[in-house]
Design brief:
alpha/beta, Rossmann fold, 8-stranded mixed β-sheet, 6-stranded parallel β-sheet
């Protein structure tokens, strides 16, 4: 009897679906690269618009990158009632979320059908958190699915325990902020340190998306991928596994920051500064601080007497009057204000000694992985909880009092950069840097999580 020739199989096709916000896109895109590197065909999609900094999405449908043994493709969500990419309404996150929940399902269904017609049937969908419409499409079309939770496991646990009444929470948002909250696997917290959506109104669009996400986790999803690493949140991960199949796969960003990139204005300016001298200030892609706050930050940076690099988006530039810019030293050797920078490259620069951050989870993990101490300046959402973790649990910085003042900012920067605890803070920062890098290295905890997920999708190496 002759032996059959093995049949060549196409790799599974994993479709990644994100809400069109930069902080949601970046970690899912990094996950896509890591999945593709293990031999999967991966397609990334979202609704492209002018504010998204993903060049492949602006090159048109079908852009392809070879990654390791696999391929990463880019396709637009388009058609139906989706806004055009240059529509200014994308700049308002709440409006964008309402729109994408309404128009996204039809666009995603069309994309999935186009993939099948092109001979690339989608075999698995991974949707970001806060995109429950994508999970619904996958369910309705019979496509297996998983969620990528882009915030901390601690925050996921808080939301989950609150929704399902698994821990005692104050019933109202107006409760005393110092009331304790106890959740298995988490540090001691108070009501005032909880993420904002715990007490957001039920009709709030982001609260609605969160509840839909948490309800979908009970649809026997075999994977809840989390942008964290075991060494950072071991107790939270283990405790939540009693309820959900959480798998840490982060931190989800590329650790190699140069990769042939040329020098830009920020890098050249940082090169001119002494080692561990610069205060880096960035509040993410969404947070807007008020004019008075901006003035306090500007004056606070000026009176530190230290060089600073401050990212002020174009839509917030008007909050900084010329006299404030001048008094803060902008344009001099002591200060530089830019509209955008490659944050990971800046954090990795040896001149940077301190990061004044809004404490979004992407920025939190980037600071930890770069070993840069922080001054925590949270605004809303999960940032409040992340600030608590950074200062009191991870021990890598201090939290700026609310409301912030110029003198408080100066004191916090001094405490991190030259105070009696500076060396201890720097030592802990370096330890977290080493742990983060070890987690994503070959055989690390997050690397094994991605490997297990990929192996579950790939055809069996033996037999059928």
């Amino acid at each position: 009897m002759s032996q059959e020739t093995p049949v060549s199989r196409s790799p599974p096709h994993v479709l990644l679906v994100s809400a069109p916000l930069q902080g949601h896109v970046n970690p899912l895109l990094c996950l896509g690269r890591r999945l593709a590197s293990r031999g999967l065909l991966v397609t990334f999609t979202t609704a492209p618009h002018a504010s998204l900094k993903v060049k492949q999405l602006h090159n048109g449908d079908g852009a392809v990158i070879d990654v390791g043994r696999g391929t990463l493709r880019f396709e637009h969500l388009r058609g139906g009632r989706l806004w055009a990419p240059d529509d200014p309404r994308y700049r308002v996150p709440d409006d964008m979320q309402r729109h994408i929940q309404d128009a996204g399902p039809a666009a995603l269904e069309g994309l999935i059908r186009r993939q099948a017609d092109a001979g690339r049937p989608v075999s698995f969908i991974v949707a970001n958190a806060f995109a429950p419409w994508a999970v619904g499409v996958a369910r309705d079309m019979g496509v297996p699915r998983a969620m990528l939770w882009t915030q901390s496991c601690a925050v996921l646990s808080l939301y989950y325990h609150h929704l399902y009444s698994l821990a005692e929470f104050s019933p109202a948002a107006g409760a005393e902020p110092d009331l304790p909250v106890t959740v298995p696997g988490l540090p001691a917290l108070t009501v005032g340190e909880l993420p904002a959506l715990v007490y957001a109104p039920d009709q709030y669009v982001w609260r609605q998306a969160l509840v839909e996400d948490l309800l979908s986790l009970h649809e026997t999803l075999p994977w809840v991928l989390v942008n964290t690493f075991d060494e950072l949140e071991h107790a939270a991960i283990e405790a939540l596994r009693a309820h959900l199949p959480v798998v840490p796969v982060g931190p989800l960003f590329e650790f190699e920051t140069d990769s042939g990139a040329g020098k830009d204005d920020c890098m050249e300016w940082l090169d001119s500064q002494p080692p561990r001298s610069v205060v880096f200030v960035a509040f993410g892609s969404l947070v807007v601080i008020g004019r008075d706050e901006a003035a306090e930050v500007a004056e606070g940076l000026a009176i530190t007497g230290r060089p600073f690099l401050w990212v002020v988006r174009d839509d917030s530039r008007g909050l900084l009057p010329d006299d404030v810019l001048e008094s803060s030293g902008t344009g001099s050797d002591k200060g530089k204000v830019v509209a955008w920078c490659e944050q990971r490259r800046v954090l990795a620069h040896p001149a940077v000694a301190c990061f004044v951050t809004h404490c979004g989870w992407n920025s939190t993990t980037e600071a930890l992985a770069a070993g840069v101490p922080v001054v925590a300046y949270p605004a809303w959402s999960d940032q409040i909880t992340n600030a608590k973790l950074l200062a009191d649990v991870y021990g890598v910085g201090v939290q700026l009092p609310v409301p912030p003042t110029r003198d408080a900012l100066r004191r916090c920067v001094d405490e991190v950069m030259s105070g009696p605890e500076t060396e201890a803070i720097r030592l802990r920062s370096r330890e977290w840097m080493n742990r983060a890098r070890a987690a994503v290295a070959d055989g690390g905890s997050s690397d094994m999580g991605i490997r297990d997920f990929t192996d579950a999708l790939l055809p069996a190496k033996h037999g059928c």
